[in-house]
Design a protein that fits this description.
This protein is of the alpha/beta class. Helix content is 38%, strand content 18%. Helix 2 links the parallel strand 2 and strand 3 (53-56).
């Protein structure tokens, strides 16, 4: 049996997610669980989908962001032996669940990640997918499009509730440290609504905070800075050394390097978002959140 988990707080786009998920082909018996932290504000959507299991998450600790707690509650409530995750602002492709299950059942893989495409055409967030296309296995994966056998929870553990963002990357890093591989199936597609610029800025800052927290928890992964995660090192360093401009006025021109490098990919927006990410990294390093 497959269990599909969707966590939500106030995002009404979950209605579009559910409309598609209930209709797509299922390779085997499937349950759909919504872990709802809206305190009843989404009950009108709940009533549209009687076949969906609706589980309420009550924020007893009054924590601002409860993403890992909701994921863990979903895991505890599932009945399936295969777990799939998709976010409330995503819409799956018609064969999404079939492809994820195929990689687990036919290829006997334990963890599978699918591809993420932007709703309405390519955005800067699609750059990561372009880098992934030639890969068979990934170094990490987010839960907005992931499947794994529930049995690994016994070894990997649940999502770390000290995180407010990035708990999914932490989960996959821990899995890899235990010897698991993350199979990439580019045909298991979901479409993501990234929201407006304000939401993108908030997301980029949060991602930056999460990356810093991840490396503090996994210091042995510093080599990533010289591989696929150079952005997490370069932009914070650029920001830190900006005061050099008082002594060498040409220093800010270094930002032209990534602008030119991304000249065909919305260069100004790419650099702007990465700078916001860099500020998030520095904020967590010097003024960490205490959950």
């Amino acid at each position: 049996m497959i269990s599909t988990i969707i966590i939500v707080k106030s995002d009404r786009r979950i209605e579009n997610t559910l409309k598609k998920i209930v209709k797509i082909p299922k390779p085997e018996k499937t349950e759909i669980l919504v872990i709802d932290a809206s305190e009843g504000n989404l009950d009108d959507i709940k009533n549209i989908f009687p076949s969906v299991r609706w589980v309420y998450y009550h924020n007893k600790k009054s924590k601002k962001i409860t993403i890992p707690e909701q994921r863990n509650l979903g895991l505890k409530k599932t009945q399936g032996d295969i777990i799939t995750f998709i976010d409330a602002d995503c819409v799956p492709d018609n064969n999404w669940l079939i492809e994820l299950a195929k990689s687990i059942n036919n290829e006997e893989k334990i963890i599978v990640a699918g591809s993420v495409k932007s709703i309405g055409g390519k955005t800067i967030w699609d750059l990561e997918e372009e880098r992934r296309n030639s890969k068979k296995y990934l170094d990490e994966a987010p839960t907005l499009n992931m499947a794994f056998k529930k049995e690994i929870i016994k070894k990997v553990g649940f999502f770390d509730e000290k995180f407010s963002c990035g708990e999914d990357i932490d989960f996959t890093w821990r899995a890899i440290d235990l010897g698991y591989k993350i199979r990439y199936n580019k045909d298991a597609i979901i479409y993501h609504d990234w929201g407006n610029l304000k939401q993108e800025i908030k997301r980029a800052f949060g991602y930056g905070e999460a990356r810093a927290r991840l490396y503090k928890k996994h210091p042995g992964r510093w080599k990533n800075f010289f591989g696929y995660d150079m952005v997490t090192l370069i932009y914070p360093l650029y920001i830190i050394f900006l005061p050099l401009t008082f002594f060498w006025p040409y220093y800010p021109l270094f930002i032209l390097i990534p602008i030119i490098k991304n000249i065909k990919r919305q260069p100004l927006k790419v650099v702007f978002i990465n700078l916001i990410n860099g500020f998030g990294v520095l904020k967590e390093l010097f003024f960490p959140n205490k959950n």
